[in-house]
Design goal:
The complex is a heterodimer.
Chain A lengths: L11 H22 L12 H12 L1 H19 L5 H20 L9 H24 L9 H26 L1
Chain B lengths: L3 H8 L4 H21 L7 E6 L2 E7 L4 E6 L4 E7 L2 E6 L6 H4 L9 E4 L4 E6 L11
Antiparallel strand pairs in B: 1-2, 1-7, 3-4, 4-5, 6-7
Classes of the chains: A mainly alpha, B alpha+beta.
Amino acid sequence: MTASTIELKVTAADRRIARYAAAAIALTLVEAALPSPLPGVKPGLANIVVLVVLARHGWRDAAWVALLRVVAGSLLLGQFLAPGFFLGLTGALASLAVLAVAVRLPGRWFGPVTASVLAAFAHIGGQLLLARVWLVPHDGVFYLAPVFAASALVFGIVNGLVVARLLRDAK
Amino acid sequence: MGRPGEFLSWLALLRPGDWATLLLAASAVALSFPLFWAGGKAERAVVRLDGRVVAEFPLSAPRRYTVTGPLGDTQIEIAPGRARVLSDPGPRQYCVQQGWLTRPNAIAICAPNHVSLSLSGRDPSHDSINY
């Protein structure tokens, strides 16, 4: 009897993505421990990792890291398939869609801060739309939109500056 | 942070286009406050006598309407986007002194003459607003 073995080839890219995803998941867990004044107002620290990957290895790798972060992070927090998971997933997909466009902006003019702010707005915009369609089918959810937009702006700038600094210091 | 030089080193990470993005994003945030917190627009004026609706007007064209209660005539004035009780035979004139009503669900009550004037918006979110 021969033992059947399934061998999965692990490429260097896989290891790299796994390492970045692990860092992003760790930041997600740290962030879950921070008290938030309002559900949805969060620093989004894991997006720092996504933006670093985007700048260094391109959109495909960034998408892997972002989605692995959402799935694995929700598993670790016991939120998998809960409303919060779908909100996070929608936010991640929306920001990845925006980042796919943002990477095409001329790098001489637009840096990580632009990418970070745009992604933060897409993140909260996607979540608000899903909340409106699915969780709270009433325009009342948009009452909080200005608060979310303001926090997206602040955290988008801070995260973007951190990304810019990490990229510069690593050079 | 703390030293000004360190703060400037953070600012040096911003590229010219980033400033444009920040400016646009900040103005979008600033604009979103009046946009989402406007609280809806008043669309119709409803006149009641003894609690029954006697007249309803869109707040689009100016017009006047007179309703006769137990004390006499109460005059309602409608203007684009607002409405008021112009005159009332009641002794204390509270509903007249309330002036123009502009927000949805605002109400002026002329209790002695059994007349009320209220504004309605697209969706009724509160029972009434009073000032």
